[in-house]
Design goal:
- The chain has 307 residues and is mainly beta.
- It has a single domain, classed as TolB, C-terminal domain (Neuraminidase).
- It is 5% helix and 39% strand.
- The chain is built from one helix and 24 strands.
Amino acid sequence: MLLAIISLMVWDFYYESKPAGNPYAYNIENLRKVDESEICYKKVGEINPQIEAPYGIAVDDLDQIYVAGKDRVKVFDKNGNPISSFEISEQARCIAVSPDGDIYLGLKDHVEVFDLSGNLLMQWPQINESAYITSIAVEDGSVFVADAGNKLVYHFDQSGILKNTIGEKNKETGFSGFIIPSPYFDLAIGREGQLWVVNPGKHEFLAFNKNGDLFSSWAKTSMQLDGFSGCCNPGNIALLPDGSFATSEKGIERVKIHSPSGNYKCVVAAPNNFEEGTEHLDLAVNSEGQILVLDTKKGVINIFSLK
């Protein structure tokens, strides 16, 4: 009888049919489906900049559109008509335009500044060998540079002089620093001059003053539309005129709107607007509140307006 019981146990362990695949795997295909009632924007235009490896987009006070790529920057008017084009020395990972029209490019480890004609005005020194610049913002004499390699934000003046560093670990305040598992580390200037920085490893938005003091934050981790999931989201942000956040994600390709306090509002572009596997959707907002989405996989700029 004992031998019979052992034989049954062996049969059950080795030969009993088992479900295929990982029974604990989360099916994200369901998350890629967005009900039409959630979508509050519509696509109203598309620009093909015809630039190799487009990666960064910006809009100036005249709603002119700037696109930076592998070895070139192109500028278009708000209707997509070309204005300017000039060569750069290497891949630009981000771009910003100052109120006086200077173009700031974040290359891997340093910043370069150009005028609209493509004349190099300044080349700032290398930050260090670990630097990996992912975002840049300019306002009122200040230039903020996000460095995913060193997990810090640098506050420069417009001539490239470092004024202070933002995001260092601080035991007194309890700030543990930025968590950046991959090179997605974005920032933007708010309506009242505050600096909003994404802490992507915690799905968190942090507001600093220019001295680097943290004074506000919000976070939302969720697999659903109301939050962010994965190792490092949102990947990119832009601020609307009313202070709301436009956000894009990697893993689940979508663009959403959150209120100034962080509450989910609606969807701009659902995953079916993009090819699966698109990881970098840079964002910009013009004076009319239109949201420009740079689709780096298709190489086009999609323009969305509120329905």
